Amino acid sequence: MLIITHADVMTPTGRIADGAVVVERDRITAVGPASEVSVPPGAELFDAAGLILAPGFIDLQVNGAFGADFTADPDQIWAVAREYARYGVTAFLPTIITSPLENVATAQAVVCQTPPGFQGAHPLGLHVEGPFLNPARKGAHNPGYLQLPSLAAVADWSPATGVRMVTLAPELPRAAEVIASLAGRGILVSAGHSMATYEEAIRGLDAGIRYGTHLFNAMPPLAHREPGLLGALLSDPRPATGLIPDGIHTHPAIINLVWKLLGPARFSMVTDCMAALGMGPGRHLLGDFEVIVDATSARLSDGTLAGSILSVDQGLRNLISHTGCSLEDALATVTTTPARLLGLAHERGCIARGCIADLVLLSPDLRVQATVARGEVVYRRQG
Q1: Which helix (H) or strand (E) holds 207?
Q2: Residue 256 CB: number of other CB atoms within 10 A?
Q3: In terms of domains, do 20 and 101 share one?
Q4: Are residues 22 and 127 in the same domain?
Q5: What is the average per-residue pLDDT within 25-50?
Q6: Same domain, 207 and 285
Q7: Which residues are catalytic?
Q8: CA distance 158 to 310
Q9: Cis upstream peptide for 131 (omega within 30°)
Q10: Can you tell me whether residue 39 is helix, strand or coil?
């Protein structure tokens, strides 16, 4: 049994000052003021005085980190997962970008086999970004592997077989039937890398799209006579959208504007981080491509953005800085909102009795001090 006490606890109904959370095995069994929570003999105490206790972060788009690229080597997913908790992340979607479908199958097998004794951030399933993308908006994806959507290609994709999210271009032939099939299986279907008109985007939403991948990027800009995919994602109440608040993919003023339009329930903060996260400047892989990384961004040799080097905790600080939003609302973009989108809100993304004990302890300036994943302390900041 683990008891985290004297923390500022962020719960669905508000903050509990000087609060306590009781964890038994991998579940939260009690939440309340520290003065009202009894401490059984032998319980492990974690004194979190002066710290904020929040739900663990959920990142829906992670291409790799610490020198490993998931598309190039899916076997590295669990090795990265062990270390990814240092950023407060307790669950994430390893992202496989456009590559042979056999590579997706390999990654499915990897995420479905948890290593014995694993401790770290847990992969919830894959985010398959491609190969059903528009070549005109391919970004850092290999055009040689792009293909049209088909039911045969996605026949064995489901949360049970390791696929949680799929990004595709809704204007492609047969996309609508693939979208409907995937959504019917419980997969979060997202529009991205697309040239869709507004009308095509709405048809995609009608078929089951409920997300937009890295809003503004790999899609045409908003135009007053042709709102396109961007206009549909912003104006239709059904989808949430992913944004990368690194100040590179999207200008802070636009992030603030989107925040005012969408609010925390439809704003999903993602990192889209790639192998260079945690490694520093240099040359790294993203799928088949070499990416040049400096202190702020990751780009192909032609200047095309290729993922990011953003961590979730830094993104959280950036979001608050760019929008002036509350900590509670900012946290929702990496906790309750992604959990709801994945159909996991009943057990993830909040601090409540019965939920999985995925937690992060933050300093007042929102630096990660410790991470608890499934009831185990998997990271503690040193010094």
Answers
A1: helix 198-207
A2: 16
A3: no
A4: no
A5: 93
A6: yes
A7: 272
A8: 28
A9: yes
A10: coil
The model's pLDDT over 190-229, given as tens digits with 9 standing for 90+, comes to 999 999 999 999 999 999 999 999 999 999 999 999 999 9
Q: Measured over all CA atoms, what is the biggest interatomic distance in the chain, rounded to whole angstroms?
A: 68
CB 25 within 8 A of CB 59: no
The CATH number assigned to the domain holding 160 equals 3.20.20.140
Confirm if 346 and 334 have CB atoms less than 8 A apart: no
- Return the C-alpha torsion angle 15, 349, 274, 132, nearest 10: -140
**Is residue 264 located within the same domain as residue 362?**
no
Handedness of CA 52, 57, 62, 67 (dihedral sign): positive
Question: What three-state secondary structure class fits 217?
Answer: coil
Q: What is the pLDDT of residue 216?
A: 96
Domain that holds residue 271: 57-341
Q: Is the pLDDT at 295 greater than 80, yes or no?
A: no
* Number of compact structural domains in the chain: 2
Residues 6+ apart with CB under 8 A from 50: 363, 364
SS3 assignment, position 36:
helix
Buried-exposed string 262-288: b where 16+ CB fall within 10 A, e elsewhere: bebebbbbbbbbbbbbbeeeeebbbbb
* Cα distances (angstroms) measured from residue 190 to each of 182, 187, 254, 267, 276: 11, 9, 21, 14, 25
pLDDT at position 305: 81
DSSP symbol at 145: G
Phi, then psi, of 181 in degrees rounded to 5: -65, -45
**Mean pLDDT of the region 286-294:** 81
Same domain, 171 and 226: yes
Judge if 88 and 10 occupy the same domain. no
Q: What span, in angstroms and rounded, lies between the C-alpha atoms of 47 and 255?
A: 36
CATH code, domain with 355: 2.30.40.10
- Using CA atoms, how far residue 323 sits from 154, 231, 316, in Å, is 39, 21, 11
CA dist., res. 364 & res. 380, Å (int): 16
Question: Could you tell me which of 294, 342, 262, 263 has the C-alpha nearest to residue 59?
Answer: 342
Q: Does residue 325 share a domain with residue 374?
A: no
Amino acid 321 reads S
